[in-house]
């Protein structure tokens, strides 16, 4: 199976100032201001705060947020606890596939839950992505439109064809709120997942495109492994 790619071949651009976006607690100093669109790009839902003292050396604010999300106080955040805590700018819950992707990325010890140290990394990651989302949401609509998505991916070094951009937009756009009209665009959670998938696919392609000519020859088995490994 021969496959051609039009990627720019500069994946290292993904690591410059727009390398990732983010989310925060509504009460956090770094959360979006009320003037951002109809609210903000996304964040954590406020919860009752646990009286348990933080571990030695832990950031008290992050421990407070971790305890709030970990409603069962088990010491590890589950997929459903994380989904209940993360919301988009329109107060919709994060897409479950995005939550699972984040869990898979940050559950370093493969315990099936997110411990406090893992949560700290996840929180920083989401914070960074939130900044990127705001930067490219030019019209402050709270969602990413097609032209904004194209600009974001170009800034990461991914010069995709118009047909590919349309496909990505259609795949990750939120469902319409009513039975008519165009989709409302790509919400924060889906924007993160779309960018991570494009990055992962590009890196997988580049690993087998050893001569960097934009063409690779793959067996069916190799192709399926790449596709099925995507978040």
Automatic annotation (TrEMBL):
<protein>
    <submittedName>
        <fullName>EF-hand</fullName>
    </submittedName>
</protein>
<feature type="domain" description="EF-hand">
    <location>
        <begin position="124"/>
        <end position="159"/>
    </location>
</feature>
<keyword id="KW-0677">Repeat</keyword>
<feature type="domain" description="EF-hand">
    <location>
        <begin position="196"/>
        <end position="231"/>
    </location>
</feature>
<dbReference type="InterPro" id="IPR051426">
    <property type="entry name" value="Peflin/Sorcin_CaBP"/>
</dbReference>
<feature type="compositionally biased region" description="Basic residues">
    <location>
        <begin position="10"/>
        <end position="20"/>
    </location>
</feature>
<dbReference type="GO" id="GO:0005737">
    <property type="term" value="C:cytoplasm"/>
</dbReference>
<feature type="region of interest" description="Disordered">
    <location>
        <begin position="1"/>
        <end position="24"/>
    </location>
</feature>
<dbReference type="InterPro" id="IPR011992">
    <property type="entry name" value="EF-hand-dom_pair"/>
</dbReference>
<dbReference type="GO" id="GO:0048306">
    <property type="term" value="F:calcium-dependent protein binding"/>
</dbReference>
<dbReference type="Pfam" id="PF13499">
    <property type="entry name" value="EF-hand_7"/>
</dbReference>
<keyword id="KW-0963">Cytoplasm</keyword>
<dbReference type="Pfam" id="PF13833">
    <property type="entry name" value="EF-hand_8"/>
</dbReference>
<keyword id="KW-0106">Calcium</keyword>
<dbReference type="InterPro" id="IPR002048">
    <property type="entry name" value="EF_hand_dom"/>
</dbReference>
<keyword id="KW-0479">Metal-binding</keyword>
<dbReference type="GO" id="GO:0005509">
    <property type="term" value="F:calcium ion binding"/>
</dbReference>
<dbReference type="InterPro" id="IPR018247">
    <property type="entry name" value="EF_Hand_1_Ca_BS"/>
</dbReference>
């Amino acid at each position: 199976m021969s496959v051609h790619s039009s990627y720019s071949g500069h994946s290292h651009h993904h690591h410059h100032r727009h390398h990732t976006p983010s989310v925060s607690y509504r009460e956090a100093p770094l959360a979006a201001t009320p003037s951002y669109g109809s609210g903000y790009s996304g964040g954590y839902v406020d919860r009752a705060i646990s009286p348990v003292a933080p571990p030695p050396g832990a950031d008290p604010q992050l421990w407070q947020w971790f305890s709030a999300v970990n409603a069962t106080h088990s010491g590890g955040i589950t997929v459903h606890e994380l989904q209940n805590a993360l919301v988009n700018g329109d107060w919709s819950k994060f897409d479950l596939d995005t939550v699972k992707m984040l869990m898979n990325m940050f559950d370093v010890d493969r315990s099936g839950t997110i411990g406090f140290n893992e949560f700290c990394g996840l929180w920083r990651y989401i914070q960074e992505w939130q900044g990127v989302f705001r930067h490219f949401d030019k019209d402050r609509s709270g969602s990413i439109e097609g032209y904004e998505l194209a600009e974001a991916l170009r800034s990461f070094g991914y010069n995709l064809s118009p047909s590919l951009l349309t496909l990505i937009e259609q795949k990750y756009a939120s469902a319409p709120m009513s039975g008519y009209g165009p989709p409302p665009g790509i919400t924060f959670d889906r924007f993160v997942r779309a960018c991570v998938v494009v990055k992962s696919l590009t890196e997988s392609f580049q690993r087998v495109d050893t001569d960097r000519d934009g063409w690779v020859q793959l067996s069916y088995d190799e192709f399926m492994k790449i596709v099925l490994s995507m978040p």
